[in-house]
């Protein structure tokens, strides 16, 4: 349904393909709003590039040599003078990114804060990124009164999503002192995805930002394990996760930062530490409905500098005795659950510690505090005894593993 935007096509159909591989698609071709062949409809499609077709790729172009990819900064003037290039760029954005909408064409051509980078292979556009300048930079005219109004939630500033979020949601009072380059969109040609092109593109965006003396590269998206893993694996760090689900993605939005200057690196350390310090507490409230796979990924990428501090806690000899005692059936769950809580977070630093079911049961029960009945229903346990048996066996299997 069109009201769900591109998210329906790009996300829901992927789920169908994986879970119901024999699904069928029915498409209404006859116009509803317009008569067949109506010139006004065709004018709208042509003007907004709604009918832009993806660049055709030959079989010899489907395997990309990553070392040969060339990154170019494209101005709005170049796009206006080269409609073929404009159509290539916009068709990749529309087809590969669920948030793209017709108004993005106007933003691409008119908004002076937006910069367009394209990745080329043999003169063919294979990936596109829209970057937005935010915060403190040469064109920033934000006044002190406006910042006070933003901090007091009395107004919102256009085109300053990152510093505004850091100021109002994370309490970073110096948020507008930095120059941010936010990756608003990054899209790879659908036929070329899964080859590492996105990571190569991010590295080139990183070089581009450094040349412009940017303090932070940033991004925000509906948090899923796959998307979060992509950004975290490319050196970005979590600043916050929203408390409500985004209408477009159906997920809670994540804000990630990558510091590029010394002052930004220092600030980012503080921001990330605060995120992880509160993440533990929010797992039983606002973050209770994050998927267990995403929770495990987030804990896996907790900075090494936070290990052993108040987030992970100091696992004492008494905690170790509690864990072993529970695994051997000598201790009740409630009497040693805090020790299990500390131990589990430590073990999740290893991505290979548990299988999918073990992770799901442990995280949902121990960290997110789902009830016994809820965990049993989610994992098809017959009842409390079978759940307890599973928990004890899993803890016993990994209890002797060295702490992270």
Describe this structure as you would to a colleague.
By secondary structure, the protein is α+β, with helices and mostly antiparallel strands. Strands 1-2-3-4-5-7-6 form a 7-stranded mixed beta sheet, with helices on both faces. 32% of the residues are buried. The protein contains 16 helices and 7 strands. The protein starts with 5 loop residues before the first helix and ends in a 6-residue tail after the last helix. A hairpin with a 6-residue loop joins β6 and β7. α11 packs across α14 (356-367), α12 crosses α13 (333-347) and α13 crosses α14. The radius of gyration is 24 Å and the shape is globular.
* Estimated structural class: alpha+beta
Largest sheet: 7 strands, mixed
Shape: globular
Total helical segments? 16
The chain-level mean pLDDT equals 87
Write down the secondary-structure element order: HHEHHHEEHHEHEHEEHHHHHHH
**Through-space gap between termini:** 47 Å
Radius of gyration: 24 Å
Q: What share of residues is helical? A: 40-55%
Strand order of the largest sheet: 1-2-3-4-5-7-6
Low-confidence stretches: none
DSSP summary, beta strand count: 7
| Share of residues in strands | 5-15%
In short:
With 404 residues, the protein is an alpha+beta fold. It is 45% helix and 15% strand. The longest helix is centred in the C-terminal third of the chain and has 21 residues, at 262-282.
List the defining traits of the structure above.
alpha+beta, seven-stranded mixed β-sheet, 7 strands, 15% strand, globular
């Amino acid at each position: 349904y069109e009201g769900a935007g591109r998210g329906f096509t790009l996300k829901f159909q992927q789920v169908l393909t994986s879970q119901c591989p024999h699904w069928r698609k029915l498409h209404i071709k006859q116009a509803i709003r317009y008569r067949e062949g109506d010139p006004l409809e065709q004018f709208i499609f042509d003007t907004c590039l709604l009918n832009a077709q993806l660049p055709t790729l030959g079989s010899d172009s489907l395997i990309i040599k990553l070392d040969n990819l060339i990154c170019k900064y494209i101005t709005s003037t170049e796009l206006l003078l080269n409609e073929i290039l404009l159509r290539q760029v916009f068709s990749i954005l529309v087809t590969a990114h669920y948030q793209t909408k017709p108004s993005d064409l106007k933003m691409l051509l008119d908004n002076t804060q937006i910069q367009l980078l394209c990745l080329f292979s043999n003169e063919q556009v294979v990936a596109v990124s829209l970057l937005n300048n935010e915060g403190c930079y040469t064109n920033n005219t934000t006044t002190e009164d406006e910042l006070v109004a933003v901090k007091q939630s009395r107004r919102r500033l256009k085109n300053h999503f990152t510093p505004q979020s850091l100021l109002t949601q994370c309490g970073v009072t110096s948020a507008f002192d930095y120059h941010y380059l936010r990756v608003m969109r990054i899209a790879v040609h659908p036929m070329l995805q899964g080859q590492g092109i996105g990571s190569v593109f991010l590295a080139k965006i990183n070089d581009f930002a450094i040349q412009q003396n940017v303090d932070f590269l940033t991004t925000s998206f509906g948090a899923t394990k796959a998307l979060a893993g992509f950004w975290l694996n490319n050196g970005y760090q979590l600043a916050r996760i929203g408390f409500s689900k985004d209408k477009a993605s159906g997920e809670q939005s994540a804000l990630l930062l990558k510091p590029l200057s010394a002052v930004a690196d220092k600030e980012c350390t503080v921001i990330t530490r605060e995120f992880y310090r509160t993440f533990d507490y929010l797992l039983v409230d606002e973050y209770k409905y994050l998927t267990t796979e995403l929770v495990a990924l987030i804990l896996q990428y907790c900075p090494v500098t936070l290990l052993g501090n108040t987030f992970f806690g100091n696992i004492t000899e008494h905690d170790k005795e509690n864990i072993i005692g529970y695994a051997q059936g000598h201790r009740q769950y409630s009497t040693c659950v805090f020790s299990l809580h500390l131990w589990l977070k430590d073990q999740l630093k290893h991505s290979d510690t548990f299988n999918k079911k073990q992770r799901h049961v442990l995280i949902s029960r121990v960290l997110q505090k789902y009830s016994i009945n809820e965990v049993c229903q989610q994992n098809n346990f017959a009842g409390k005894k079978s759940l307890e048996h599973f928990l004890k066996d899993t803890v016993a299997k990994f209890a002797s593993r060295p702490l992270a």
